[in-house]
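Practice problem 4.
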């Protein structure tokens, strides 16, 4: 029986047919939804077009949904955008049930084979850092936009694992891929994306940015398909070079039926997911790190003092330095907390009837566990809105874990790339501040405002860099 009405639906003026879709502050939906949680309680619902979505806020209720009821909320809801982009397949991010389990297991084990959690991955990242440092050196003496080169450098790590190669920062195809990726993610989280999710049949016939997004995803898919073709030409089944090779080999496994997830179109979609998830996230976190440390030069100075004491200037940082650098580690954690780069989390769906916070949630209901409300939960953090590495340090200055630190989400669908991202963040961050000092242009204040798409990205900003 449909007891959904027991859930507090918001007393907001809903537009007939569109529901609450335009009530959501499009510039800061994550802040708006967090505030609604404060007013209406930690579980509430809204109509977004035809469908209702349940929003969950605050650390305790998010944990209840994603961890205590992990199995119930392990699925993703139907998404018309994904359906069109993934061409009837579901890639990795939007897949459900057995196909998702198979792909997640396969992807994790393949990423491990190609270095995840191993020294070989560390070497790949350190090599990329040397290219990045060379690029940064060219900018000494002037002001520059750091976003593009950080994006290039970070993307090359996932490219090595998926495509088996890195791209030169001047490579035209690579630049186009990154540009389309950034724009498509932004449009997906914009009102155009939201309208398409709510009214796909109608929006398909209307002009608007959603058409640009679909075109960009299509071109990205075509780029990847070209690479898959190249892999097929010189595939050696006994010697896979990367994710694409391993997937192609798995496709030939006689145990899989024709309907199995291991199909070429799905390979392209999984590569798109990994490229997307592995590029934008870590590089955006590094951009926030630059902003926070430029705004807090005293913290930048303390990080550099720890780097000089533990690593010095004559060698590159490595992962075995991390346990000896609690202050730097705490600053990276605090950057992830305040940077809040996946502010709304990935969408989830109840795979069976359940109750949450005393409210009945029927099977098939879409749910959003708002990560912003966890990373800024005032019952969990001493100074939620102030950049404070002390959140992650105990009285002796040692690194302290915090339960409400969930930038990678929690439960069964939590980020598959957490290990890789944490390694990248530590090595990129320490290497940058080892070799350089960063500041704003004279007389200019950096903005803490961001643009919300699928990720929360700082507004474009220029900075100055000095060699140390
Ligand atoms: C700072 C960096 C990163 C952050 C903050 C981050 C955060 C997240 C979040 C919040 C989700 C949604 C989880 C959910 O629905 O509960 C997610 C999913 C995912 N992430 Fe990340 N991520 C990062 C880096 C990466 C990297 C480097 C990869 C590359 C391997 C990656 C691959 C994925 C994949 C494949 C999923 C979907 C998992 C699934 O549906 O089973 N992420 N990430």
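Answer key:
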């Amino acid at each position: 029986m449909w007891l959904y009405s027991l859930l507090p639906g918001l007393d907001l003026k809903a537009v007939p047919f569109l529901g609450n879709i335009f009530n959501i502050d499009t510039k800061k939906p994550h802040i708006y939804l967090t505030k609604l949680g404060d007013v209406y309680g930690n579980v509430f619902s809204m109509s977004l077009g035809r469908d209702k979505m349940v929003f969950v806020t605050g650390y305790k209720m998010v944990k209840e949904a994603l961890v205590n009821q992990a199995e119930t909320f392990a699925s993703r809801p139907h998404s018309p955008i994904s359906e069109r982009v993934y061409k009837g397949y579901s890639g990795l991010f939007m897949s459900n049930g057995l196909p998702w389990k198979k792909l997640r297991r396969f992807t994790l084990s393949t990423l491990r084979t190609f270095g995840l959690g191993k020294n070989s991955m560390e070497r790949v990242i350190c090599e990329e850092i040397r290219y990045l440092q060379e690029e940064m050196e060219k900018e000494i003496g002037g002001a520059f936009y750091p976003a593009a080169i950080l994006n290039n450098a970070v993307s090359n790590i996932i490219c090595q694992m998926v495509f088996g190669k890195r791209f030169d920062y001047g490579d035209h195809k690579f630049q186009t891929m990154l540009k389309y990726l950034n724009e498509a993610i932004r449009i997906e989280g914009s009102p155009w994306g939201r309208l398409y999710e709510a009214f796909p049949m109608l929006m398909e016939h209307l002009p608007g940015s959603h058409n640009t997004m679909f075109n960009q995803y299509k071109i990205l898919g075509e780029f990847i398909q070209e690479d898959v073709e190249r892999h097929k030409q010189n595939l050696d089944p006994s010697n896979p070079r990367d994710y694409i090779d391993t997937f192609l080999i798995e496709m030939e496994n006689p145990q899989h039926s024709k309907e199995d997830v291991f199909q070429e179109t799905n390979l392209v979609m999984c590569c798109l997911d990994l490229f997307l998830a592995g590029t934008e996230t870590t590089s955006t976190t590094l951009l926030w790190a630059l902003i926070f440390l430029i705004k807090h030069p005293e913290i930048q100075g303390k990080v550099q003092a720890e780097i000089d004491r533990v690593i010095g200037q004559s060698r590159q940082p490595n992962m075995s330095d991390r346990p000896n650098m609690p202050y730097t580690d705490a600053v990276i954690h605090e950057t992830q907390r305040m940077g809040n780069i996946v502010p709304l989390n990935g969408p989830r769906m109840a795979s069976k009837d359940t109750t949450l916070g005393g409210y009945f949630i029927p099977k098939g209901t879409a749910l959003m566990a708002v990560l912003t409300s966890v990373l800024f939960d005032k019952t969990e953090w001493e100074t939620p809105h102030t950049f404070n590495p002390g959140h992650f340090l105990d009285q002796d200055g040692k690194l302290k874990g915090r339960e409400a630190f969930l930038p990678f989400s929690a439960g069964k669908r939590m980020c598959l790339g957490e290990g890789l991202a944490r390694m990248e963040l530590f090595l990129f961050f320490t290497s940058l501040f080892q070799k350089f000092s960063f500041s704003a242009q004279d007389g200019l204040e950096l903005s803490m405002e961001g643009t919300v798409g699928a990720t929360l990205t700082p507004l474009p900003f220029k900075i100055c860099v000095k060699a140390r």
